[in-house]
Amino acid sequence: AIINFGSINIDHVYQVDHFVQPGETLASTHYQQLLGGKGANQSIALAQAGADVCHVGSIHENDAAFKQALIKKGVDCRGVKCSETPSGHAIIQVTPSGENAIVLFGGANQTITAKTVMQALDGTKPSDWVLTQNETSSIDQVLRQAKEKQLKVAFNPAPMSESVKSLPLECIDLLIVNETEAAALTEKDSLDDIVAVFKEQWSECEVIITLGKAGVMMLKNNDCIKVDAFLVDAVDTTAAGDTFIGYFLSAYSNHTDAKRALIRGCAASAIAVTREGAAQSIPTQKEVDRFLAK
Ligand code: ADP
C-alpha cells in the first residue's frame, strides 16, 4: 500500500473581472467549490492509476462530503479524521485572462500530530510506501517514523518553503520536485548546477525533477534517465505534477522499471494538462493505456 499524509483542501473558485483591490467590494460572476489540495490530488491520481492508497489527513466534520468524494475515487479514507478546526481551504480569484490570486488557509491540514502519524503507520509492512508533500503538519515525524519502520519514503516538497531544508531529509528514498522546487532546495539556478548538487549531496536518494513541457529527469544509482513530455495542446497545467506523481509512484511501487514508470507519469500528466481543473483533470488508467497505445 501507499500511505499518503496529505492535505485536503476545499477550493472556492470565484470568477472576477479583475482582482479585488484594497477597500473594494467586488461581485463575483461565477462560483464553484472543488475538492483540492496537493495531498488529495495525489491520492486520487494514485487510486486512478490502480494503486492501493490510504490517505491520512484531516477535515472538519461539516465537510464530510469531500471525504466521500475521495472514497468514491477509490481512496481508503480510514485515516482521514474529523477536526474541530475549519477545513483547509483556498479562496481563488480567476480573471477572464485565466490569471489567479489565491488566499490559502491550512486549517485542519495543520492538525496532524506525531500521534496521528504513529497510529497511521501501525501495522504497515516494509513493502509499503509513505508519501507526503509540504501542506500538512508533522512532516518531520512522517519522514522519521516511516524510515524507522523501514518503509520506502517519497517526498514532494510542494509548496516549497525554507522550513523544508531543516527536515530530516536523510530519511527520504525518493525526492520528487519541479524545477522551481529543485532550484530553491539546491540554491542553484541552472539545471546543470541543480543536477550536480543532487548527484553530489543526494546520492543516497533517488531524485526526480519534472520539467514541465520538457518532460522529466530521474537520478538513480549514478544514472540519469530522461523522458520527453508528450506533445499536446495544454489548456490548464494545474495538477500536472500531482498527476505525474500518482501515476509514476503507482507503477514504480509495483516494481515497474523506472523508465516505464516515468513514461506512464508523463502520459497521464500530458492528458491532465489538456483538461481544465485539478482533480477532475486526472485521467483514468484506461485513458492512459489508450493514449500510450496511439
Ligand atoms: P508541476 O505541476 O509540479 O509544476 P511540471 O510543470 O514539471 O510540474 O509538470 C509535471 C509533468 O507534467 C511534466 O514532467 C510533464 O510530463 C507533464 N507536463 C507538464 N506540462 C506539460 C505540457 N505543456 N505538455 C505535456 N506534458 C506536460
UniProtKB/TrEMBL annotation:
Cofactor note: Requires a divalent cation, most likely magnesium in vivo, as an electrophilic catalyst to aid phosphoryl group transfer. It is the chelate of the metal and the nucleotide that is the actual substrate.
Gene3D superfamilies in the record: 3.40.1190.20
Pathway it works in: Carbohydrate metabolism; D-ribose degradation; D-ribose 5-phosphate from beta-D-ribopyranose: step 2/2
Pfam families from the UniProt entry: PfkB
InterPro entries in alphabetical order: PfkB_dom, Ribo/fructo_kinase, Ribokinase, Ribokinase-like
Main EC class the enzyme belongs to: transferase
Family in the record: Belongs to the carbohydrate kinase PfkB family. Ribokinase subfamily.
PANTHER family: RIBOKINASE, SUGAR KINASE
Protein name in UniProt: Ribokinase
